[in-house]
Predict the 3D structure of the following.
Amino acid sequence: MNIQYKKGVLDLCVLSLLKKHDRYGYEISEYLSNHIDIADGTVYPILRKLKSEGLLTTYMQEESGGPPRKYYSLTKLGLETYKKERAQYLNFAKRVEILLEDDSNDKE
Amino acid sequence: MTRNEFLSKLADELKKNNITDSDEIICEYEQHFAFKMADGYSEEEITAKLGNPAELASQFESVGEVKKSGGRKAATIIGLCVFDIFAGAFFVLLAAWEIIMAVFSLCNAVAAVCLFSGISPWSLIPSIPYWPSMVFGLSLSALSVLSAVGCIYFTAFIRQLMRSYSRFHQNTIAAASGSAVLPSLGIYPRLPAKFNRRIRSVALFSLTLFTTCFVLGMIISMILSGALEFWHAWGWFGYKS
């Protein structure tokens, strides 16, 4: 699948994962690369971008038997942005689907 | 590619792209290696899945550094402080009105109780026959409820206004310092729909009860006293019949 398609919605996927609960970078990377076929490394630039836009905050948390992990958490702005963009995306995807389905039906 | 090769290549590329906080980014990838290696992957496998360091570094580049803004922020804060003085006075005024409404509601409630029970503290309530006293008592208790509802709604309004103002405050400072801005808030209170409906029906009911009982009380009093200006007949407000 075209990488440009994926890039556009990865931000949204990251926000969606963080909406449920706070996660650390590796967790997000693993989850996304298991569900969507992307290179493992691409998640970290996205996390940093979302943080610099104020959608995410980070905090360190000690884990038993390991170095402290950097957790990402959704900010209020992040949540509001997620809700808005989610609705927009779903609406868009629905329209595209209708369009594409229609096209295949018309084929004689 | 080994772990160290990958990390040093990434660090070089990041430096080339003038990324200031490259240590933090490298740290994130080090953690990635640590987790993956704990799961039993080899360094080669991990770097292969991570992607090309140069390509990754260029994705960091597109983030863009935080915009610099010097004197604008200070000027904005001074302006906001001046504005706050006026806004603060305005909020004090609103709060005072809220208190007046609450006291009005309380006074009505007390007067209604006095009328119902026939008590006249410090002879404040003029002498009044039984039936008009009951009807006026009902009317005043409805007025008390009505103003209490007004109080509740007004409290919600002030609260929303304050939240909206503080959002404006945050956003102005955030915009001046070049950081992210939250969407602005409306000034009207958004009460839960159920509560909103209930409060509206209570308000309508008490308004109707107040008006009806007030008019009814006037009419009964006029009939009982045999005079249009029944307060003269009963010697209220210092009139002596």
